Amino acid sequence: MTTPAPAAAKTYDLSFARWVRDNVNGGDKLNLCMQCGACSGSCPIGVQMDYGPRKLFMMIRAGMKEEVLSANTQWNCTSCYRCVVRCPRGVPVTYILQDLAAKSAEFGYAKGPHENKNFAQAFWWSAATFGRTDERLVTMRYFFSLGFGEGFKRAMANLKTAIGMVKTGRMHIGLPHMTKGRKGLKAALAKAREIEQRN
Amino acid sequence: MSEKKPGVYLCKGCGISDAVDVGALEKVGKNEFRIGHCVVSDALCSPESVASMQKDVADGAVNRMVVGACSPRVMADKFRFDGVPVVRANLREQVAWSQPAHEEDTEMLAADSIRMAAAQLAKTQQPTPAALGEISRTILVVGGGVTGLTAALEAAQSGYDALLVEKSDALGGWSNKWSMRAPHAPPYRDIYGNDIEALIAKVKANGRVRILTNATVAKTSGQPGAFDVVIAHGGQEVTEKVGAIVVATGWRPYDATKLTHLGYGASPDVVTGIEFEAMLAKGAPVKPSNGAPVKNIAFLQCAGSRDPNHLPYCSSVCCTASIKQALQVVKGDKDAMAYIVYEELRTPGTAEEFYREAQRNGVVFMKGKATSVDGKAMTVSYSDELLGEDVPLGGLDLIVLATGMVPNSTNVDAPAIEPEKSEAQLKDDINPVAPIKVSGYAHGEGSPWPHIDKGVPPGGPILNLQYRQGPHIPILADGFSDSHYICFPYETRRTGIYTAGPVRRPMDMAESAEDATGAVLKAIQALEGGAIGSSVHPRVGDLTFPKIGHEKCTKCRRCTVECPFGAIDEDEQGRPTVNFARCRRCGTCMGACPVQTITFDNYNPQMVNDMIEANEIPDEFSEKPRILVLACENDAYPAIDMAGIARSHWSPFVRIVPVRCLGSVTLQWISTALQKGYDGIMLMGCKSGDDYQCHFVKGSALAKERLGKVGETLKSLALEQERVSFEEMSIADSCRAPTVLDAFAKLVGDLPPNPMKGF
Amino acid sequence: MAAGQNGAGPASQTILVVGGGIAGVTAAVEAAEAGQDVILIEREAALGGRVTKLNRYFPKLCHPTCGLEINYQRIRKNPRIRVMTMCEVQGISGGRGDYKVSVQRHPRFVNERCTACGACANATETMVENPFNYGLDKVKAAYLPHEHAFPMRYVVAPEAIAAGEGEKLKSACAYGALDPDDKGETFDLHVGAVVWATGWQPYDPKNLDVYSYVHSRDIITNVEMERLAAHDGPTHGKILRPSNGEPAKKVALIQCAGSRDLNHLPYCSRICCLGSLKHAAYVREQYPDAEVHIYYIDIRAHDKLEAFYDRVRADPQVKFIKSKPAHIRVGEDGRPMLHGERTIDREIYAEPYDLVVLATGMQPSAVAGYRPTMGLVADEYGFLVPVEGDGEGMFSAGVASGPLDVSMSVQSATAAALKAIQAVRNA
């Protein structure tokens, strides 16, 4: 895999768009975007994004590498697939955002305490370790990854919610739930990593 | 002529006999008009009744008929007997269905309907057509581009000769310059080779097509079936007889030197789409300035089109053309970048797939307006609407301006002939961009494109018509040649002359070819119509034509000036001469003639005069006013009919006379009606003005204008101005028609009775 | 294959036109006026097709019936044209100059003796959805298709016969025109060439589930809007909210409802932008205080029609919003609420309206009914395009051949008429 092209001057520069096309999952379909806005309008958390998917895609086209890779758009996607289902041009918006997030992290655009990245990493740790997500452990790992002080502050702020969840059986105390055959899972993940690195 | 044997046929069906005393109507025919042969049927349209009418004709008992039944708009096929004039009295829609049953006023209305029909029949003759007989079956095609070539070929394939006249020295027109063509067939995404050579070869090989290059039309006179065309060719003028003309003079690119704000002229690397096409035809494009390969290219759409300072319209083809060129660039060079800067991307219909194809291949589409171009730095300043910021598009090797199409509706290489007359003629037209003024929906005064009101295209006429109406084919306010551009796109105001291709509307090659094919069919109809003396659209098949009584004619020239179709010329003595094959039979000349000496065999001033006089006018003490409505038979009359179909009622004092067009209404009829004692007169017809809806273009406008002169007459008779009124009535006004009639009846009823009654 | 080659009989000079909309009517009259015999068959009870259900045409805002009236006059005057309504093609065999066309006539229950007096309508008590108004209102089950119907003849809906009213209707008719036992029939026509002018159907708005067409009566389609604005429509031309009959003072017009969408109609239907501009004019004409918002991707006011776009743009109460709305929900007040992103300023909106009009696209009718298997081929969208060089006498015209506006359909039909004439004359 090649690294993204150097940041363009403030002008249209297709080299970043081409890099996205060649290296980002689903990027080859991105050209088909006609900027109708159905994706951004459909997004349940679009208001929380720096840019909706539509504008992010236009920025890719315009060669705005720095702004695109530093955006929170790709980290906020919840994979509800509404945009994918509705896109009139068959652009796999969700895949593109997911892979853009991975690329942002890989090339160091999600440095330091980064809410979405850190949450994603905590989520992945739990899934890869136990084969399940444990709300308690994911949350604590995510909170404290933002620094001890911040972690403690957030844990306290959410204590009431946590107790409520425990009381209603929505969160349990004790050993984390685990899937059977975690050895297989680990082997599968290792193989996946190997394949990824080979590419 | 054989003896006139009229018959009156009355129908009792569909509620007619429930509403009126049909026996009394029979008496009107027998006693007042002395028509012995009166027949009453329970259902006149039944096969049995029709058969017995047929038998009466065959037996020689009748040779002309009044049919008192339903509207002339229905059952026309049933009451059609060879060689028998049939006049319909509308007893159903406009009496039985719209008036209270058996009231005195209803009976009077029904009786008057029969009287009017009988009076009409008395003045109706079977038309004797003015057939040309010997005609030319050659179709002249002016312009040798894709439209003209197709027209010539289609004419030939239909069994007609074609004479193809091309101004330049080669056939093919702009199509010659195209390197490749955009798709118009499935899968709608593949560029394909320019096949114009094949079309040219086919045309050249066809024995029915005669080709004259370096040739222009110097003069055109005559009429469909028999045009005399003088062609200037090789320094000589030759006269050719042709039957019909297809004008396919095409277009030219908008003058890019007017686009300095888009950098044209600042650098050889700023070119027009046409110029770039020539570069593509030579192979991989290189920078004109230094021969370096083109790696970064920007296409600026709407260069001159959709611009208040340049062309008001969308040139339609430029989006697809730029997409095609961009695809050629990126497919030819994987590293090349192509940007298309657009405001609205217009790839209508299946061309949407071509747009996607360009995107798939990496062409970048940018929505926004190019505000300026620095030709030296090769940078486009452009405000990106989607990013919400100004993005300078720099480092370009080539900037392509997608210039629009300007119609060749005049010959720019020729001087204007009689410039004053040309201007008056060209401006005498609808303005397609005038504000909407229907039902009060209007925003701002005047056109948003004020410059085009003044815009008479430069140059001389294409055909140089030797017509009283001037040398041009009428040109619409946006510069395109005449076309009724919705329902009847081929109709021009010069009969037998059809415009096709981009000269009448921006269109691409495939559409131009189709347009040419349609125009050839219209040309065939026009010349064949001339042969038998039959009218073309909209009164197709009408064999009547205006006859001018020269003994009464005062040579006032109103008929020659007002004919919307330029059908009447003046001879050396200034007398009007009718080119009947050019005539569309609207009767505008008849309405114009101040001495009522223009007549049609079945429609003439005396006939309507007699119809007006045939009605009984109750005396001034009866409190039964009479209102004459002269209604356009194409729109107002059907609207009133449909009000009847909906069983709406209106004033029984109204007497409706259908007219071919309000343009045919002569003021004499109004004066007759006033003298006869009618209390009010209403002209009902189509919308006039910018968005005119008159099938004869300016009939209703002329009627309105003429009516302006009635004021003086009324004053001299000491009559109120309100007695004569003009009402715009569209065919969809069936709900409004009764209200309008009732309101006018009330207004007239509130006036004192016409003092002329009983004189 | 030219006639005679298959030995089936002499070449027929008759042209069959399938479909009686503006393209079919045009093809028929143009061919007949050039001296050809024409049979015009139409599936519905009257001619006029889609255009007869339009209130007005862009850009002149004139009425379709105006041009249709002239065309019907041309048919009435021309004995060369035979019109057959309620007929559909079932199959075709043979070759150019010698086609055998099998035609199915659907029962009308009213024969040619009908005078359009309306006695049957008075006699029936059954009501059916009014097809002329796209089911927005009801009509007596014995009805005149509409006031401008050609031929002007009544039709009885099968529902009236099913309700056992057949004999009652028969005895109400004084002219022997009622035939409750009409079963329809199948018959063959021998023709030399065929013009397919089978037109289009509105794309089914139920397929656009995000636009909640089935959830609110105040979400209608563009063809329904035409009926709402027409004097002979369900509201006599008043643009009212179907849910409560209140004036629609805030109206959203949604472009590309189905068109330019790979999930629905991949092509652009061409007419919807101008249709919506016209709808904006309808609303603004009726209500001086009304607001109209047009949601669009690109406004495609091609060629001279740009002038119409300019006219509407000059109205400050018509706003153009570049956005494909994401979805429509029904708000708490019962009004449809549009959700989406305004692409120019990236605002996420939730905007309530009195009335939402979906500019649904045109889908070729040939996607459903019979379509020819020679001479023409359906493209992936269902439009009938020529098979080059096979020598057949089959031609498509109007929207059967591609998404066209009225003017272009007439152009296409006139061209097809000449091609058909050539086909029979050279057979």
List keywords for this structure.
heterotrimer, A: 199 residues, mainly alpha, 2 domains, 58% helix, 0% strand, B: 759 residues, Rossmann fold, FAD/NAD(P)-binding domain, five-stranded parallel beta sheet, 21 helices
Q: How are the SSEs placed, and which strands pair?
A:
The complex is a heterotrimer of chains A (199), B (759) and C (427).
Chain A lengths: L13 H10 L14 H5 L10 H9 L3 H6 L2 H4 L5 H5 L6 H14 L8 H16 L4 H11 L2 H10 L1 H9 L14 H17 L1
Helix pairs in contact in A: 8-9, 9-10
Chain B lengths: L5 E6 L4 H4 L2 H11 L4 E5 L5 H12 L5 E6 L16 E5 L1 H5 L7 H19 L15 E5 L3 H12 L3 E5 L14 E2 L10 E2 L2 H10 L3 E4 L2 E9 L2 E8 L2 E7 L1 E4 L3 E3 L16 E3 H9 L14 E8 L14 H15 L4 E6 L9 H9 L3 E11 L4 E6 L4 E5 L4 E6 L1 E3 L11 H9 L22 H5 L42 E3 L9 H24 L14 E2 L9 H5 L5 E3 L5 E3 L9 H5 L5 E2 L5 H10 L12 E6 L3 H10 L8 E6 L7 H10 L3 E6 L13 H9 L2 H7 L7 E5 L7 H15 L9
Parallel strand pairs in B: 1-2, 1-3, 3-4, 5-6, 5-13, 6-9, 13-23, 15-21, 16-17, 16-21, 17-18, 28-29, 28-30, 30-31
Antiparallel strand pairs in B: 7-8, 10-11, 11-12, 14-22, 18-19, 19-20, 24-27, 25-26
Helix pairs in contact in B: 2-5, 5-16, 6-7, 6-13, 8-9, 9-10, 16-18
Chain C lengths: L14 E4 L3 H12 L4 E4 L22 H14 L3 E4 L2 E9 L2 E8 L13 H5 L3 E3 L8 E3 L1 E2 L11 E2 L1 H5 L3 H7 L12 E7 L1 E4 L3 E3 L16 E3 H8 L20 E8 L14 H15 L4 E6 L9 H8 L4 E5 L4 E4 L5 E7 L4 E6 L2 E6 L1 E3 L11 E3 L5 E3 L7 E3 L9 H20 L2
Parallel strand pairs in C: 1-2, 1-11, 2-3, 11-24, 13-20, 14-15, 14-20, 15-16
Antiparallel strand pairs in C: 4-5, 5-10, 6-7, 8-9, 12-21, 17-18, 18-19, 22-23
Number of domains of chain C: 3
| Number of contiguous helices of chain B | 21
Q: What's the number of extended β-strand segments of chain C?
A: 24
Number of helices of chain C: 9
Structural class of chain C: alpha/beta
Helix fraction bin of chain C: 10-25%
Mean pLDDT of chain B: 92
Strand content of chain C: 25-35%
What multimeric state do the chains show?
Answer: heterotrimer
Rg from alpha-carbon coordinates of chain C: 23 Å
Kindly report the CATH topology of the largest domain in chain C: FAD/NAD(P)-binding domain
In the CATH scheme, the class of the largest domain in chain B would be Alpha Beta
| Low-confidence sequence ranges of chain B | 426-455
CATH homologous superfamily caption of the largest domain in chain C: FAD/NAD(P)-binding domain
Based on secondary structure, the structural category of chain B is alpha/beta
CATH architecture descriptor name of the largest domain in chain B: 3-Layer(bba) Sandwich
Strand order of the largest sheet of chain C: 3-2-1-11-24
Task: Determine the strand fraction of chain B and express it as a percent band.
Answer: 15-25%
